[in-house]
Amino acid sequence: MPGEIQKLVADLKRVPIELRRELRPAVRAAAQRVLDDAKDRASWSSRIPGAMRISVRFSGRMAGASVVVSAAKAPHGRPYEHLGDPGSFRHPVFGHRDRWVSQQARPFLFPAARANRDRVAEEIDHAVEQSLLRTGWR
After folding, report:
1. What's the pTM?
2. Who is most buried in 3, 27, 46, 97, counting CB within 10 A?
């Protein structure tokens, strides 16, 4: 399935501007499932869930939908995410460079994306197909 998602992302880069306007809400709606799941998984934090949003792009290397966390609103989001891997990370205690502690990671974005990727890919695939059929594509 990851290969199919990469092919879909490559195809989205070639979508004409008219179809992009039509597809944007459908792609955003499909990504909402991941956002909601990630917010649930990060509910232990008072700031991380409110700092998450969906970003939809059809150009560049990151074409598609992304769930992102604002580093300005929740600077602790990235260390806790730990690239989706369990484990721990180290940080200074209240900015004291001479005192460091280890803290357990609490991934929330990567697990949400993994748990929902098949359904989201199906929804986006269906939206692309429906949009193309409406424009006369066969």
Report:
1. 0.78
2. 27
Q: In Å, how far from its chain's centre is CA 54?
A: 7
User: Mean pLDDT across the stretch 14-28?
Assistant: 80
Q: Which two tokens stand for residue 93?
A: 């205690």
86-113 average pLDDT score: 90
Q: CB-based contacts of 100: which residues, under 8 Å, 6+ apart?
A: 90, 91, 92, 93
Q: Kindly tell me if the per-residue pLDDT of 12 is higher than 70.
A: no
Write down the pLDDT at residue 90.
87
Classify residue 91 as left (phi > 0), alpha (psi -120 to 50) or beta. beta
Q: Which two tokens stand for residue 23?
A: 């597809």
Contact status, residue 66 vs residue 54, Cβ threshold 8 Å: yes
Please name which of 128, 92, 91, 109 lies closest in space to residue 45, comparing C-alpha atoms.
Answer: 109
Kindly report the three-state secondary structure assignment for every residue of the chain. Answer: CHHHHHHHHHHHHCCCHHHHHHHHHHHHHHHHHHHHHHHHHCCCCCCHHHHEEEEEECCCCCCEEEEEECCCCCCCHHHHHHHHCCCEEEEEECCEEEEEEEEECCCCHHHHHHHHHHHHHHHHHHHHHHHHHHCCCC
